[in-house]
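User: Please predict the structure of the protein below. I'd like the answer in structure-token form so I can feed it into my own downstream comparison script.

Assistant: Understood. Taking the following sequence of 619 residues as input:
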Amino acid sequence: MGNIYTPISSLNTRYSIAALFLIAVLTMGLVITPIAFAPSALADEHSLCPLYGGNMRISWSGDVISFNTLINFWFRTTGYDVNVYDRLLKFGPNWELLPSLATSVKMEDGGKTHNISLRDDVKWHDGAEFTSDDVVWHYTYAATKATALITGKLTGSGFIKAEATGTHSLKIYYEKPTLPHVYAYTQAGALILPKHIYDVDIPFKDNPANWAPIGTGPFRVTEYEADQYTILEANMDYWNGRPCLDEIEIVVIPQPSTALLALESGDIDFMQQPSQADFDRINKNPDLEVQYWPATRIFRIVFNFREDAQEKYPWLADVKVRKAIAHAIDPQLMIDGARHGYGFEVFSPISKATAENYNPKTEELRPKFDPALANQLLDEAGWPKDDNGVRFTAPMIAGSRPPDPDNAELTKQMLKEVGIEVEIAAFEYAVMVAQYLKGPNGMTADYPLALGTTGTGADGDLRLNYLKSSFAPAGLNWNYWSHPKVEELVPAIMETFDDAKRQEMLKEVQEITATEIPEIYLWADTRHIAYNKAKFGGVENYRPVYVMESMRVFWSKSGEPLEVTQTETAVKTVTQEKEKVVTETTTDYTVTAAVAVIVAIVAIAGVTLYTRRSGGSSK
């Protein structure tokens, strides 16, 4: 058989020149272009406001505690903070990355250096200019001094430093390749704090701005009364267009039943997380409506792997006992009891809400509800029942906010059926977080079990580092579990830019957790709200998948159209800017290669035309 490759030397000269030119152009496009992240265009959120003006009263289950985004009390705090501050990037409706304060993130040195461009038209609420100095200070403090959730993300990537390269540009350096998703992290730590307010000679936790915040976001805090209410006033100079509403009042109402009565009477217009038991009642009211979305929050039972805990409770070290406890738990009973059927069973630390990262194989690997098998395994493991039918006692940490008490009580009942006596230690949520989940010792030796939650966001890599040995308080591995393969995979996941390879590794981690059972993944929640649909619109654009979003697109049906004002002109500028973002930052390999091919085709056509003309003139 002849050689299937034709050497360039045998080609006609004119095509040789064209081929060489094509190779050169393609090579140039693929080699000299840095890895670039191109955020999708800004959504024209301004178009989501048909009417402007009016006030809205919203109930929230608890106080903000602090508006300082690096003193993070998670869902509750973030729900307030997203209205006051902005992130560099944000997630869109399909988990795609969108620009926010940053217009582009170009990854250099294989993703270890992030070259970030910022908007140049953003002001803090006190009128000061937002600059790269703010971002440099925020991420440096987050990585080196804070104990926020984002701290673990940054230290896990080997944060080196952040430095300004211009008034609205900066570079952040990491020891390891780092995905840009960290700048869109859904918890509060990615919301940028002002350097000129916090880089002062006042203790960080005592800064007055923690309760009278200065942000860049769509709303300003004009009044705050601890444990009572917060008043948010529209930021008319917001860089992405003023909010639809003039004012939002967030009222603290801890009990969903009380909040529902207030919604029905008209005292409030919107409530977070009504009880699923009340969905039918709410929807029967012609003025009200329930909306709910699949969520990524996962309820779990956590085993304590501290050495001193395992000395005190030796059964913790036996995977057969952990499997037996998993066989004794019926997640569907919890969903029916705590959420009236609204929820779904999970088998891994990654929710089905992020389907591309979910490993369905875990449904076969994780122990199913089977009390008879649970009893058998416990007998085999050497933990027989005593005369009272008890094998051993297991104190368990649990939170006090719904549905934690229901989950705890059902866990206690189900484990009692197989001879395990659970002693529930209930804590207020903030206390549980501060004392155990982020406390100096994590789960202490006193508690072999804990009920908690976890969750994955747009990419499982952004939440799985709690499985790595980054122990409390800097990390979230409060139960001190460590597995050599997971130790290897988790950082590799966070350093891999190839989606298919990253998903492969994510699925391998899930298989390990399904067989080793460091924790029992029970069920995933929904995010749901109830509101007065007769008075307000825009709620259908609200997507609180993991945490609450800004409420800037809520609008009052008694509002008025926006006239052509300075604000509308500013919004047109934003629309023009979003086109600029796409043009300037879409420089990844695919686009570069495509451009190169077009240039090459033009070049070939030119060379061919030239040679034809040359040939014609020589006859």
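That's the full token string. Confidence is low (pLDDT under 50) at residues 1-44, 564-604, 607-619.
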